Amino acid sequence: MVLCKYLALLATVFSASLAQNTTAITDALSALGLSSFALAAAALNGTSGGQALLSTVLSGGNYSILAPNNDAFSQASSLASDNTLLVDTLAYHILRGSFSSSNSSTFNLTSATSPNHTIGRSMLNDSAYVTLEGNASQAVAWTIESNTLVFLNQATNISIVNSTRINGTGLDIYTIDGILSIPPSMSSVLANATNTSSIAGLLNSTMVPSSNGTNDTIGNILNAQRGITLFAPSDSAFSEVSSSLPVLEGNLTAFTTVLQNHIINGSTVYSSEITNGSNFTSAAGEPLTFVTNSSGTYVTSGSTTAKIIATDILSMNGVVHVIDNVFLNIASDSSAASSAYNSATSAATKLASETGIISATAPAASSSSSSSSGSGSSNNAGVASVVSTYFMTSIVAIVSFAVFGVFI
Ligand SMILES: *[C@@H]1O[C@H](CO)[C@@H](O)[C@H](O)[C@H]1NC(C)=O
Ligand SMILES: *[C@@H]1O[C@H](CO)[C@@H](O)[C@H](O)[C@H]1NC(C)=O
Ligand SMILES: *[C@@H]1O[C@H](CO)[C@@H](O)[C@H](O)[C@H]1NC(C)=O
Ligand SMILES: *[C@@H]1O[C@H](CO)[C@@H](O)[C@H](O)[C@H]1NC(C)=O
Ligand SMILES: *[C@@H]1O[C@H](CO)[C@@H](O)[C@H](O)[C@H]1NC(C)=O
Ligand SMILES: *[C@@H]1O[C@H](CO)[C@@H](O)[C@H](O)[C@H]1NC(C)=O
Ligand SMILES: *[C@@H]1O[C@H](CO)[C@@H](O)[C@H](O)[C@H]1NC(C)=O
Ligand SMILES: *[C@@H]1O[C@H](CO)[C@@H](O)[C@H](O)[C@H]1NC(C)=O
Ligand SMILES: *[C@@H]1O[C@H](CO)[C@@H](O)[C@H](O)[C@H]1NC(C)=O
Ligand SMILES: *[C@@H]1O[C@H](CO)[C@@H](O)[C@H](O)[C@H]1NC(C)=O
Ligand SMILES: *[C@@H]1O[C@H](CO)[C@@H](O)[C@H](O)[C@H]1NC(C)=O
Ligand SMILES: CC(=O)N[C@H]1CO[C@H](CO)[C@@H](O)[C@@H]1O
Questions:
Q1: By residue range, what is the domain housing residue 151?
Q2: Domain stops at, among 126, 149, 176
Q3: Is residue 20 domain-resident?
Q4: Would residue 181 count as lying in a domain?
Q5: What is the CATH number of the domain that holds 150?
Q6: How far is residue 189's CA from residue 100's CA, in Å, rounded to a whole number?
Q7: Which of 201, 192, 200 is nearest to 154 (CA)?
Q8: Which residue, 176, 196, 214, sits at the end of a domain?
Q9: Lower CB density within 10 Å: C or N end of the chain?
Q10: What order do you get walking across the sheet with 117-121 strand by strand?
Q11: 216, 225, 256, 404: which to mutate for ligand 9, most atoms within 8 A of CB?
Q12: Closest Cα to residue 37, out of 77, 16, 66?
């Protein structure tokens, strides 16, 4: 019935490679009881984007399909009325690559050696929903909690409830018990995540001149960047420095530099890419160094070390990690910032073809820095004079330079 219609459709519209093993696919989908998923996939035929997605996935290569079960679909009324959202949502449910090393049925989307969080890349690359660096497609993050695989950043727990490999194809199908939501903009992620309402409010209420000469919130300016890793101080971290904040906010230059020292510009660095001893360059051009030990992972900027207390909060244009301290670091190095941004941008071209688990060994973010490591105070003095020159001549230039960290 539904399945047969779906398969007939695929056979006529799409490449022969699927038709080759129609029987196996029919068996797999019906054995998994995925009639709603089959119906949704069939609806992809209605748009050119959907046809492109299906023909890519079905014409060869390894993909892992996270197929919501019928109960999950029955609760997703908004999908039915919006074809673009349907295509993009289904694209977010298809991971690039195979995550299972054996042909046998398993619920595991990862190997035992994976880091706590496992990150894979989906097929979602519509710029209406994802603006990562290098046109990378959006990531999906999951973890194992009490022997159950759970997807992160979802309003409710979504788990894998069954899986199968379709013989004769590169396709693994994992049945999941919910529909994954696509990561929203960084400002809405911050407004919604646990412990990040202070920074959300601060970014939303601080107006700065944007590159086109109009005033805009820092939140909107950050949302417009491609590839941002934000180390977001928690609400309690902000309350501990509350006496410094008004002073800082009164000086846009200092405020912007402090904020930049919480950001890696041009690179979306997931927790799996942060290893003991890794060293990235902040958007202010200063080192962000990482230490992992039995009590957790820590990040240092200037003289302040913070513990990373939540990771891999995905956004449309990057990722947020929550930290338990504010880096009140006004040091900056513009040439180190541009050089790090430039090398991140060139490394990012590889991301579009990335498959499998995203980890530190994958071709991902790299950092480079030509920063001289002089003492804090002499560095600050040099930066301060550069900053005040800019500040006097053109606040528009300094702030947009400062926020983007790349344009000079
Ligand atoms: C899991 O999938 C297999 C086929 O791969 C099927 O035989 C079995 O009934 C499914 N179990 C559930 C609980 O859906
Ligand atoms: C699927 O798309 C093809 C090509 O656009 C069209 O010929 C066919 O009628 C469509 N089928 C359905 C069921 O919409
Ligand atoms: C692993 O990730 C889960 C979900 O984010 C978190 O609750 C747990 O504390 C993490 N465990 C470790 C050891 O980091
Ligand atoms: C915010 O979180 C709530 C509960 O976790 C969820 O229902 C809602 O959809 C989220 N809103 C956004 C904009 O992500
Ligand atoms: C897939 O092939 C393997 C061996 O290649 C076989 O053991 C397994 O039963 C097949 N699965 C299905 C669903 O036919
Ligand atoms: C199709 O799948 C069956 C098992 O389901 C397998 O025996 C057969 O080799 C597959 N055919 C092709 C052409 O790969
Ligand atoms: C930003 O502030 C405006 C008005 O102050 C408010 O309406 C909006 O909800 C805020 N947005 C976020 C993401 O906090
Ligand atoms: C931007 O804000 C500044 C400071 O509040 C103000 O002087 C300026 O007129 C504003 N510019 C625009 C284009 O609104
Ligand atoms: C200026 O840039 C901001 C992004 O920072 C954007 O929201 C705004 O619409 C732009 N304004 C004009 C007039 O282009
Ligand atoms: C703003 O902060 C910078 C350091 O980042 C400092 O050099 C400058 O003097 C401050 N400006 C004012 C008006 O206090
Ligand atoms: C990080 O890189 C910077 C710039 O290359 C260097 O000065 C600093 O010593 C490095 N820190 C660590 C802990 O490796
Ligand atoms: C069903 C299954 O194979 N579960 C395994 C998934 O991986 C975790 C961690 O490696 C194991 O503990 C489960 O037994």
A1: 2-176
A2: 176
A3: yes
A4: no
A5: 2.30.180.10
A6: 31
A7: 192
A8: 176
A9: N
A10: 117-121, 139-145, 148-151
A11: 216
A12: 66
203's CB contacts (< 8 A; 6+ apart) are 187, 190, 217, 218, 219, 222
Residue 300 bridge partners (DSSP): 289, 305
The two tokens of residue 61 are: 């290569």
Name residue, tokens 């000086």.
251
Q: Are residues 257 and 389 in the same domain?
A: yes
* For ligand 5, mutation pick of 30, 103, 169, 171 (most atoms within 8 Å of CB): 103
Q: What single DSSP character describes residue 159?
A: B
Q: Are strands 318-323 and 228-233 parallel, antiparallel or unpaired?
A: parallel
Residues in the chain: 408
Alpha-carbon distance of 260 to 345, in angstroms, equals 17
Q: How far, in Å, from the CA of 385 to the mean position of ligand 10?
A: 9
Q: Using CA positions, which residue lies closest to atom 3 of ligand 11?
A: 287
Retrieve residue 119's tokens. 């990150």
Residue 11 CA, distance from chain mean position: 35
Buried/exposed 195-234: b ≥16 CB within 10 Å, e otherwise: bbebbbebbeebebbbbeeeebbbbbbbbbbbbbbbbbbb
> Quick one: which of 97, 41, 104, 103 has its CA closest to 73?
41
Total number of domains in the chain: 2
Token pair 């991902």: residue:
364
Strands 228-233 and 139-145: unpaired
Q: What is the pLDDT along the chain (408 residues), one digit of tens a residue?
A: 445 555 555 444 444 444 544 456 666 777 788 988 888 877 777 788 888 887 788 777 899 999 999 999 888 777 777 888 889 999 999 999 988 754 444 466 754 344 588 899 999 999 999 999 999 999 999 988 777 788 999 999 998 888 888 877 788 899 999 999 999 999 999 999 999 999 999 999 988 888 788 899 999 999 999 999 999 999 999 999 988 887 887 888 899 999 999 999 999 999 999 989 999 999 999 999 999 999 999 999 999 999 999 999 999 999 999 999 999 999 999 999 999 999 999 999 999 889 988 887 643 344 443 333 333 322 222 223 223 323 322 333 333 334 443 221
Residues 135 and 195 in one domain: no
Please give the structure tokens belonging to residue 89.
Answer: 């949502």
- Nearest protein Cα to ligand 7, atom 11: 204
